User: Fold these one by one.
Assistant:
Number 1:
Amino acid sequence: MTQTDAAPRKIWAHSADSHVMEPADLWTSRLPKRLADRAPRSERGDKYEILYIDGQQIDRQLNDFMDAMRPPGAFDLDVRLKDLDQEGVWSQLAFPSMGFWSVNITDRELGREVARAWNDWSHEEVMSRQDRIFTPAIVSLADVGDAVKEIERTAEMGFQAIFLPCGTRPGEEWGLDKWEPLWAAAEAHGTVLAFHIGTGGENVVYRGPGGAVVNYMETTYPGMRVVSHMVAGGALDRHPELKVVIAEGGAAWVPAIGDRMDEGYRQHGMFVRPKLSRLPSEIIRSQVYASFQHDPSAVEVIEGTGYTNVMWGDDYPHLEGTYGHTQETLHGLFTKVSPEIKHRVLRGTFEELFDVSPIPADKGL
Amino acid sequence: MTQTDAAPRKIWAHSADSHVMEPADLWTSRLPKRLADRAPRSERGDKYEILYIDGQQIDRQLNDFMDAMRPPGAFDLDVRLKDLDQEGVWSQLAFPSMGFWSVNITDRELGREVARAWNDWSHEEVMSRQDRIFTPAIVSLADVGDAVKEIERTAEMGFQAIFLPCGTRPGEEWGLDKWEPLWAAAEAHGTVLAFHIGTGGENVVYRGPGGAVVNYMETTYPGMRVVSHMVAGGALDRHPELKVVIAEGGAAWVPAIGDRMDEGYRQHGMFVRPKLSRLPSEIIRSQVYASFQHDPSAVEVIEGTGYTNVMWGDDYPHLEGTYGHTQETLHGLFTKVSPEIKHRVLRGTFEELFDVSPIPADKGL
């Protein structure tokens, strides 16, 4: 957006949901061949992109349109910072792209080394080269002890969050006691748990009429499910300093599920184990954060419900994101609410969770 | 609640989500033995209640506590009206109880006759005997033509809604073209589609820590899924007079999923089939209604989002309901909102959907 006298003032915001695009040689250049061959990689066929992860093969519809839409800085950090300046985005929590598929790995050595290599790459090639874009660390889900060690190692390197998938296999749900060491380590290091929508499960579950929108909705429920397990299972109650982000799934649903969980907790009280020291909605309001891109409701519900852990995200460089229309989106979102709520959603919540480079004083809100 | 000088004034409301408890001989007294034997029935063992439906057997945890909690009027219509007077509830949309299990029937004759018998029972024993409690009709899901005929028959008898389950088997999703005659018939007769949470699927999907609350949350997603299929599949767009109620699952999530579906519809537009004449959120705001029992957020989001199709429900005589604390609940819910919103949630939305006995002028709001 070119600034002219007639154009509205540029709004500057942090983005709690962006992505880095890893180079194709990330793992091949950093791991021995026997491991690199099993790390996540993508091959493009005529109609499908095929993802390979440790012997698993996942076909995805090829989407040339998405490539065409990709912002100039998707693969180049210096150009990316120019994209950010153009869009009015100061700091980004940038999730993985290919790295998301690391959650499919069940082999202990492979899981550990893929995570370490990704984190080393991010530290060297992303986070050490500038101070506006930072990533969560990846941790191995194949072994909780390895995940704890990687939290300790990456916290030392300056990582402030770990990425976790919303979808889980049966027996791996986030409320199970097996994850307790992970929560203890994250709490001890002030590491934010950054769950991202659309990860850890199948994203195309329906192929009938309206499938594209139905499937988009289907990615939403696993984010809600994470909250239900982390709260009802007691993890967030036992670790009151632990912070959970559900990225990209909207935010207006959070107070709704808080009330719904309260109703279940109270009305089905004789079946409830464990008992919690606070109501689910209280735990959610103090420890669960959510990010959205376009949703007016994410902003509109704040004043009425008092749920303020809402963050905007640009989802750069993805198709669901705001690249090319960030200013239009931001100007549209905040017409009905106070300057305090605008500040909270675009900057304050993010700055509460993360130690980030402050937005220069000459950048408007 | 006894009215004394010190007690707050009684608030009178309609309930968009209540239940009738059918007599054990409903089907045996109305169907030939060869069909009655296959109709839904319940047997109580030592630890489990066993439900039989046409050869299927479903074990449910026995819950003496729920029996002990049951309001006096659960099985007696005259006593029930006294319960309603005590609680401050004027009119109730009363869903089935055992009748819910009719959705499991796949045999055409059985499905048709079980539905007819239930509707005849409701007409004779519930709706003809008083004018405050009315039920949706049951329709057979085993054959859409039979369902259409039962809509026509029951509309003539004075039914204003049909009950439909939120959960569907694969190949039966509500967005599929096979249901088109049902939507056309419902629209033609002004019949409301009353979907109820916790029906048509498995309600205990997780047995780990926090299972009671996690499973309570799991019943919420199928209600959202109904909306996504009915909107994205185009049914509500093709039938703009059709009204959908999602009962018992809360209401504050509705604007959230409207925005989420808009984002999918716009950002993934090149994959979207069918195209809609209105945005998903517009369709939802004019045709989707939701009911809740206790949730403060269901009321709190109305002013900010402008989503007003919100109805309170008492869930009488169920454990998740407000029997015994209805007045406490109603007095607590409306402290922060305008009298207009209070009227809308407790009376106006319900009276917009249904032709009901008006609340006498001496009953306060």
Number 2:
Amino acid sequence: MANLDSIFHGLADPTRRAVIARLAAGPAAVSELAAPHDMALPSFLKHLKVLEAGGWIRSDKAGRIRTCRLQPDAARAAEFWLGQQRSHWEARLDRLDTFLAQMTDDGGTDGP
Amino acid sequence: MANLDSIFHGLADPTRRAVIARLAAGPAAVSELAAPHDMALPSFLKHLKVLEAGGWIRSDKAGRIRTCRLQPDAARAAEFWLGQQRSHWEARLDRLDTFLAQMTDDGGTDGP
């Protein structure tokens, strides 16, 4: 399992995010993945290596064709971490809401 | 609005993720944020700068105390992007399931 450093580092580049978005639609050969990107193949392959190190993709070679597949665990780990922070954040806002509502109730002068 | 490159770059480091996790529980002074991290203050401040550039935090100075707050938009953008990829990925798996179910139906020999 890749660590969160390399998982998030995988996402910090537009070429790598485009590769992930393309592979979410299904596996693709390296040549097909590289085609839309205006860069030399070695540079593109470096991005694929970063994605592999981050656990985002896996690749298999059949004959002379290397095919890449998205690995869902990286996305799950990234979403899980973000979801944890959001739940802490939202719990805090809920407590703040409750606190403010209590302040309003306590301070209300228009009650019966 | 910070771009996705800098949003995800903000997450690609354990110190920065720890700062985000701490701030999800509420605002904190820079000195309090820095305390658990075994690094020189200038190095820690660089991490805060990366988080500010990624739109993760905002800071305000009152007297000699600089207080940092989490900005929820960065997390929302990150979760939105990941959610989009997941929905594409899941839609593809659903189509694959349907396809496989049809293959099984078509090829079934034990039906009435």
